[in-house]
C-alpha cells in the first residue's frame, strides 16, 4: 500500500486522555492486562493476571499496578482486549441487516440471484420493518402479511419477533486484536466485514465498557443454510476486537453507545475503496435488552463480550455488475468511532492467518510460571 503506513494503524480516540481504558499487551514474558488512566499506563498483571480478574476486581484507578509512564500506543503489541470472557453476538438487530439475511437465504448464497430478490423485498417490507417494535402486536401483524405474501423468513422472526438471535461468535481466547490479520475462509466467495460495537459485561450481568469489533460474515455459507452459521462465523482469526475496552465513567456511558456512529473503510490492494456507516440509533433492540436476552437462563462466571449487530450490509459492485461486494486478500478494514478509536485489520484467509495457539491451558501455564496465580483467574 502506498502512503503513510501509520495511516493504516489502529488508534486511540481523540479524547483518550480523559477516559479509562483496559486492554491486554504482549510482554516478553506473556500477556498482561493493563489500564490507561488519564493517559498513564498501569500494568495490572500482579494484582489481576487476566482481564476477567481485572474487571471483576472493579478497581479501575490503576491502584496496585505497575506504573509504566505515559501510554504510547504505537510502542505496544496489543492483543485482543479480552481473555476468559465468552464471545457472544446478536444478529439481525437492524432492518437492513434483516433484509440482507433474507436475501442470502432466498438466493441460497448465490450472489447472482441477490439483486432481484433485494428489490422485491425492499419494496414490500423496507418501510414496515423499520417502524415496528420487535415482539409487538404490529410486528405480529406484519409477520402474518409476509407469510401470506410468501416472504416470511427465519431471519425476520429474529428481526421483529420477541426473541433476539444470540450465538457464540468465537471460543474463549480466539479473538484477535488491533493491527492483526483477520481471517476469511479460503473457500468463501461472498463475504463482508461487520463493523460493530461490542459490550463487555461482568459476571454479574452489568455492562462495564465497550469496544469496536469486526464480526466477519460469510454470506455464501450462511445463505446456503442457517445451520452453517458456525462455519460462517467461527473460523481462525475471524473475530477482531479493540483496540481497547473503554470503561464506562462520566466521560463515556451506555447512552454514548446508544447514539454511536460506527464508520467503516475498506481499502483494497486493487485500488477499491468502500466507505460505510452504522448508526446505533437505528438498532431495533436496546443494548440492555440484548444483554438481558443473553443472560436468560444462562450464567457467565467470567463475564462475556456481546457484539450487538450492524446496519452495514454492502451491496456495491466490486468486480462486475450485479456481483456486489466481497473481500479480497490484502484488504485493509478500518472501523472507527470517535469515543472508541480506530480498529484496523488486514484480510487474509483463515488458513493463512497465524494459528491460534494460546488456549486456556497454555494461558494458565504461562501465568503459573510467572507466579501470578494466587487463587484468582
Automatic annotation (TrEMBL):
Q: Does the keyword Phosphoprotein apply?
A: no
Q: List, alphabetically, the InterPro entries matched.
A: FAH, Fumarylacetoacetase-like_C, Fumarylacetoacetase_C_sf
Source organism's superkingdom? Answer: Bacteria
Q: Which Gene3D superfamilies match?
A: Fumarylacetoacetase-like, C-terminal domain
Q: Where is the Fumarylacetoacetase-like C-terminal domain?
A: 177-348
Q: Which UniProt keywords apply?
A: Hydrolase, Metal-binding
An example of a GO molecular function for this protein is: hydrolase activity
Task: Indicate the family of this protein.
Answer: Belongs to the FAH family.
Protein name as it appears in the record: Fumarylacetoacetate hydrolase
